[in-house]
Design brief:
The protein is mostly helical. The chain is 73% helix and 0% strand.
């Protein structure tokens, strides 16, 4: 990836970036979907990883006192681009989280079918990014998909019980490690950070820290997010530079494996159990097709905008 200064962008471009962030934030609310999937579909994935990596590099330079290099790195970060993206993510979480959670609860099967279509459409988009279709790529896709499919099945439910106590019982270092692990879902297609917290038993702990205003635990979680994002983005950026073909194949595998959470039957994203379609299947099938069509349309529109 180039270390050239960031390109200038127009106010209209920043508005568009706000919309991309809104789409990423919407995806992050849904178990089994991540903002990384949306970034891949919208064609901003490499650019996002590049900027996060530059931020990680700048943080390291700041901590080591290399101020000259730090100032140079800071100028290469697309601050307005990132702020617009983050603003869109926060706006989506603030405005849609309650609506989507209610729909996922009241219309579990229909909404899961819609998001399943969106994710499988994203698989088609990512497939176009492969340099070639060879045995190595297929092997990576199958291995990653089967592994994630199995891992997700280790829990039959994707949510904590309503009766679970939201209290803090874990030490600060557990919060730190949880943050560093969960933040990876922000930039990896296939799984949401909240579901990772559920799987490792830290979801209620984090809610307890928020409810109790446990500043120390929240700071440990935030620090873990910063460190995890810095380290992982640096590694991912290097892998994209040197093993782009294999990384894209692995991401396709992650998205395919995540469909275990999104399979509509028996109860949508509330469970990882799998059952045959039953009841009224017409609406879920229609929404599935709509999800596929939306992703394909967005991807083709993006290509035209880039080409024009």
């Amino acid at each position: 990836m180039s270390d050239a200064p960031p390109p200038r962008t127009s106010p209209i471009a920043h508005v568009a970036q706000l919309g991309r962030g809104f789409a990423m934030g919407t995806a992050d609310i849904v178990p089994g979907v991540s903002g990384g999937t949306v970034a891949l579909v919208l064609g901003i994935y490499d650019r996002l990883i590049h900027n996060v990596r530059e931020g990680a590099r700048g943080l390291k330079q700041l901590l080591t006192g290399d101020m000259a290099s730090f100032r140079s790195t800071v100028t290469r970060i697309e601050w307005l681009w990132l702020i617009a993206l983050l603003g869109g993510i926060l706006l989506a979480i603030a405005t849609l989280s309650s609506i989507l959670e209610r729909l996922l609860d009241e219309e579990a099967i229909a909404m899961s079918a819609l998001f399943l279509g969106l994710v499988l459409g994203s698989v088609w988009v990512a497939w176009q990014l492969l340099d070639r279709i060879d045995v190595a790529a297929i092997a990576i896709i199958v291995t990653v998909a089967v592994t994630l499919f199995f891992v997700l099945g280790l829990r039959s439910d994707t949510e904590v019980a309503d009766t679970a106590e939201e209290i803090v019982t874990q030490p600060l270092w557990i919060f730190f490690l949880s943050g560093s692990l969960a933040i990876c879902a922000m930039i990896l297609p296939g799984i949401s950070g909240s579901f990772i917290l559920v799987m490792i038993g830290m979801y209620t702990e984090v809610l307890g820290a928020v409810n109790d205003r446990d500043i120390a635990s929240l700071l440990a979680l935030a620090l873990g997010c910063v460190v995890g994002l810095a380290l992982f983005s640096t590694l991912l950026s290097w892998l994209l530079d040197h093993y782009h073909h294999a990384v894209i194949a692995a991401m396709i595998g992650l998205m395919i494996g995540s469909t275990r959470v999104l399979w509509p039957w028996p109860n949508g994203t509330h469970t990882t159990r799998l059952e045959a379609p039953s009841g009224d299947v017409i609406v879920p099938v229609i929404l599935f097709v709509v999800g596929l069509a939306v992703v394909v349309a967005v991807e083709r529109l993006g290509r035209r905008v880039v080409a024009s």
